[in-house]
Amino acid sequence: MRPAVRIPDSVLDDVRGSARSPAVARLRRGAVTVLAVIVALGAVGLLGVRSATVYTAGGGYELTLTYPRFARAGLDVPWDLTVRKAGGFTEPVVIVVESEYFDMFETQGWTPEPSAETSDASRTYMTVDPPPGDTLTLGFDAYIQPSSQLGAPGAVSISERGVDVVTLEFTTWLVP
What we know:
elongated; 176 residues; 11 strands; mainly beta
């Protein structure tokens, strides 16, 4: 005669419960708290784009740049450069940017479009026709590439006859 087979009440009857120590419970509560804080910060928009504005002057120029200080992949970001020159512009303006900085962007283009553009191993040189008055504004319509994971330092300069007369440095940090 065969022994009677006991049919379990649940498929989990033979699963042993794990020992729960106070340290494991504290670790679990801590991890859940950190996750809840991150979700809450994202829900109120504190993990989105944070722009900053930096300023410098030199060589007869004033540069003001609004750029993404903190951003996330896939988001539109501001990048607007204002160049002022007392007395106005009499010649085309050569704006020099660090090419590697712009590798993290997908772009729709510059406004206004440069009349000429060239680059070397590390920098892009954009020539913009002289605007009327003493202020030139250059906008960069872009968003952070979805594949970008790290930020980058950047610099923008005004060049006259191949010499940088004023340079503005900045850094964009990318967060998950």
